[in-house]
TrEMBL record:
Residues 1-21 form the signal peptide. Residues 345-414 are annotated as: Disordered. Residues 380-401 have a biased composition (Low complexity). This is Putative glycosidase crf2. It holds the Pfam family Glyco_hydro_16. GO terms for biological process: carbohydrate metabolic process; fungal-type cell wall organization. Keywords: Glycosidase, Hydrolase, Signal. Residues 62-280 form the GH16 domain. GO terms for molecular function: glycosyltransferase activity; hydrolase activity, hydrolyzing O-glycosyl compounds. PANTHER family: GLYCOSIDASE CRH2-RELATED, GLYCOSYL HYDROLASE-RELATED.
Amino acid sequence: MANFVTRAALLVALAAPTVFAQDADIKCSSGSPCPKDKPCCSQYGSCGVGAYCLGGCDPVSSFSLNACVPMPVCQPFDQDSFNNLDGFVKQDEYLGDPTDGAWVYSGEPVTSNGELWLTMADGTVGTLIKSTTAMWYGTFEASIRTSPGAGVVTAFIALGDSKDEIDFEFVGSQHLSAQTNFYSQGVTNYNNGKNITGQTDITADFHDYKIDWEPDTITWYIDGKEVRSLDRESTWNSTAGFYSYPQTPCQIQLSLWPAGLPSNGEGTIEWGGGLVDWNSPDMTNGYYHADFKNIKTTCAATPSGANVTGKTSYVFNDRSMTNQSVAITNNPTVLGSFQASGLDMDFGKSQEKNTTGSIPGQSGGGPSAAGPVDNGDGGSSTSDSGDGSSGTSPSGSASTGFVQGNGGMNNGASSTQIAPEQIMQGSLFAALVAIVGLCVL
Ligand SMILES: *[C@@H]1O[C@H](CO)[C@@H](O)[C@H](O)[C@H]1NC(C)=O
Ligand SMILES: *[C@@H]1O[C@H](CO)[C@@H](O)[C@H](O)[C@H]1NC(C)=O
Ligand SMILES: *[C@@H]1O[C@H](CO)[C@@H](O)[C@H](O)[C@H]1NC(C)=O
Ligand SMILES: *[C@@H]1O[C@H](CO)[C@@H](O)[C@H](O)[C@H]1NC(C)=O
Ligand SMILES: *[C@@H]1O[C@H](CO)[C@@H](O)[C@H](O)[C@H]1NC(C)=O
């Protein structure tokens, strides 16, 4: 139901001033695709190169279908405890090679007692972690102790370049319910959300959340108990002539983000339970946190009838963005530089790493000046306190429309300043810019 309120609100929401834009921010939509020199339409509807072309890149709104970089095929993941951030790559250092790590992140994850904490300090937009590979059906599960706090949202979702989406979302002011949702191609459908009420305090203890995504059925589980299922058959859309059912490869995302920022739309704030209290006793060590462990993903068998010409990457062959448009290929997934795109994967390869102008999203994942304390393993992850300017890439969820990447605030590192993302046209996806909160940094 996040979607109902957020999208309505976002369509009229403020677009933050593009004070740090180096280049004009070029918007994109399926009716208005990107130009050739900035061929990739990011998850939030802005054109660019580099990270704009990686996970979340919308093929239909890009210069051409092959502007977006192919997504690496599904790889299972299974880790119970997290004592360091090995296998987690900062978004602004990631060029598309999943052997660099299973996850990319923006913001500030830390580890504590074997748990992976997604933090959100005052003046930040929290933390987002995305799988570096996509899943074309499969299961994803985790034990989660969700964050309390009005306006504070914990999410565990699958999200595709097509904006197919399957969600668990937890609003921090509602300790006794979990929200489930799904979207097809980012189309708002107010009837898709369902609250699972009657939980014991989900912010107090870990509970197991699992989604089993099959070609014909999606099943949501809490603590091993089925709480919802959705049949593909029930989603037939006679107008569109296909099932409004998630059916294309998706990245798994874990996130903690502030719905309750004054700069957000009224509907978003309301849905999130009000404004975030940045002096709340719920903030430990100066930040809110959502805690994860026992993270496991599995990959379903290749769908029968799939177009398989290789085994390393998913591509889209046509603009329908249905399961039939997906092919499994051996096309490369790694960009030569942050100036490259799917049109010229090796562009800038020999040059030194240069993130300038290539990272969509906005600043704010980082900690406040104090920075979070890694009380687990002696500093695996404290890093870059105050360096909120380091760019990261698109993030967030279509259901919320929240942009969680980095790339914005000027802390003196002006070379990494990026035009913030704004609101995408049309009904596909509304992106929210929450610059005001970030300027606190
Ligand atoms: C779920 O609960 C939230 C918060 O009370 C509410 O905003 C939303 O409308 C509910 N969703 C559904 C589908 O009932
Ligand atoms: C059916 O698909 C069309 C086109 O994508 C969309 O506008 C409409 O909202 C969909 N209807 C439902 C019930 O999902
Ligand atoms: C795509 O979905 C249709 C149902 O809409 C199904 O009949 C077909 O087998 C699926 N194909 C693939 C490749 O998954
Ligand atoms: C299968 O995928 C390959 C690689 O993208 C493409 O060249 C080919 O046209 C596809 N075949 C069909 C029947 O769609
Ligand atoms: C990075 O790229 C930008 C724009 O392409 C360029 O102006 C800048 O000089 C580059 N910096 C380095 C260190 O190569």
